[in-house]
Each structure stands twice: as structure tokens, then as C-alpha cells.
Write a structure and sequence with these properties.
By secondary structure, the protein is mainly α. The protein has helices at about 1-10, 35-50, 55-70, 75-90, 95-100, 105-125, 130-150, 150-155, 175-190, 200-220, 225-250, 255-260. Helix 2 packs antiparallel against helix 7 (about 130-150). The termini are far apart.
């Protein structure tokens, strides 16, 4: 039931038709967020691979991004926009929370989303198709695992009745933490060559920096913070991959990508 609740909450696919899920199960869905990444990342990879058979990889990558936006209903991107508005326009805890709860998007949110999507598109558009597919599924699942740990490190910053989703997530048990870890790391272990594994440090650094920022400003987290945490961790994962590739090609092995593809 918890897994079904996670797929209902984190996607807009009609999983709710399978059966009705009691409200209390939605408090324990975060450990299964990386598992939902298998679905959303898999849809992105499938869209990317199929589109690239008849279109340039840059267009295929754009279609893959759009496919996840449709599947998730822009759930995380809405949180990222509110995060930029709140932390950009607010100077106190109360003001930041008030801005983040406002449904209207401000200049910080607009500019933040533009910069985010530009970086997301440009970081992977010129890479080989096989490598992009691997990075997408690994980045989606692993970044969701990293972001999910926010509920273990910070308290919820609002009262439950003030939550947009009307739910406050429970902290993970040890078993749930291990489940999230396995779901987040398994694609990396299976698909990503060991030489790329250092990119896992980038989402961890991003998570640490954002946690410190949220603790200082809000003394906790909100649902918008969760969405922003995931997208920024994922972006840092791709940035780390680009840095690794650039470093190898320029200062180490110029045929690094060709060697990997072989």
C-alpha cells in the first residue's frame, strides 16, 4: 500500500484506480520516492531512446524532459519555483514561508526555472545517446534518494494543517532507509561504470548545502523544499558527470567517451 501511495502521489498516472489508499499511508511514502524514480526515469529514457532514432539527440532530450513533466504534473518544478521565490524574496522565516505558500510565481521563480531548464538541457544535449540514457535513470533514482533524506535531518517547518498536501511525512525507520538506499543505488551499480561513480559526491554536497540553508532560514523543510532538493541534486549529478568527462578528455584520455562506449 505504501508503494502504491508513493506512485499515486509522485506521478499523475492513474494508479489511484487500482484501489483506494487510506490517508495515513501517504505519511510514509518518501522512502519509496527513489522507486518512483525507476518509473519516471524509465519513461524519460524510453522517450529519449525512441525519439533519438528519428530525431537529433538534442530534440530527443527535450522531449524526454517534457515526458517527465507530464508524468509528474510538474510537481517538483512547482516546488523549485516556490523555493526560489521564498528564499529569494524572503528575509525572515515567516516571510519566506508565506511567499512559498503563495500560488503565484514571482520573478525569482521565473528566473530560477529558466536557468534550471537551460542547464538541464545543455548539460546532456551533446553527449552520446547511450551515456545520456544511463545518466538519466541513475540521476533520477539516486537524486531522489538523496533528497528523501531531508525528512530524517530536518523537522517540518509548518503545522500539518498548513501543509499544501495536508500531510507531514514521518521519519524513516531503518528498514525504510535501507529500502530507499537500495532503490537509489541499484541503477548506479547495474548501469553506471565505476569510473563515473565519483559523480555521486555532487548530490551529497548539494544536499548538505541546501540542508544548512533551510535550517538557517526555516529551521526545517517544506514540501516545496523537497521538490527543489531533488531537482537541484539531480542537476548537480549531471554537472558532476559533465565535469568528469571534460576533465578526462582535456587532461587525461581524449578518447574517454569512445572508450566507455566500446
Amino acid at each position: 500500500m505504501k508503494i502504491l501511495a508513493a506512485f499515486i502521489f509522485f506521478t499523475r498516472l492513474p494508479f489511484w484506480r487500482i484501489r483506494e489508499v487510506p490517508a495515513e499511508y501517504f505519511k510514509r511514502i518518501v522512502p519509496y520516492w527513489p522507486l518512483a524514480g525507476w518509473l519516471t526515469g524509465g519513461i524519460m529514457v524510453g522517450t529519449l531512446w525512441l525519439s533519438a532514432q528519428v530525431l537529433p539527440i538534442s530534440i530527443a532530450w527535450l522531449l524526454a524532459i517534457i515526458s517527465r513533466l507530464l508524468v509528474t504534473g510538474c510537481l517538483h518544478e512547482d516546488g523549485l519555483a516556490d523555493f526560489f521565490d521564498g528564499f529569494g524574496g524572503g528575509t525572515t522565516r515567516e516571510r519566506t514561508l508565506a511567499i512559498m505558500k503563495d500560488s503565484h510565481i514571482g520573478s525569482y521563480g521565473v528566473i530560477g526555472l529558466i536557468v534550471y531548464f537551460l542547464l538541464l538541457f545543455l548539460l546532456l544535449e551533446n553527449l552520446p545517446l547511450k551515456l545520456v540514457c544511463v545518466l538519466v535513470i541513475c540521476g533520477d533514482c539516486y537524486s531522489k534518494f538523496c533528497a528523501s533524506q531531508i525528512i530524517n535531518y530536518l523537522p517540518y517547518a509548518r503545522k500539518e494543517e498548513d501543509s499544501k498536501a495536508k500531510v507531514v511525512y514521518d521519519r524513516m525507520t531503518l528498514q525504510e532507509s535501507l529500502t530507499g538506499l537500495v532503490c537509489g543505488l541499484l541503477p548506479i551499480v547495474v548501469f553506471l561504470p565505476i569510473v563515473f561513480w565519483p559523480v555521486m559526491c555532487f548530490p551529497l554536497l548539494t544536499f548538505t548545502a541546501l540542508c544548512r540553508l533551510m535550517k538557517r532560514r526555516l529551521q526545517g523543510y517544506t514540501g516545496d523544499c523537497c521538490g527543489a532538493m531533488f531537482l537541484l541534486c539531480e542537476l548537480s549529478f549531471y554537472l558532476g558527470a559533465a565535469i568528469l568527462l571534460y576533465t578526462h578528455i582535456r587532461y587525461g584520455n581524449p578518447d574517454f567517451i569512445n572508450t566507455y562506449l566500446k
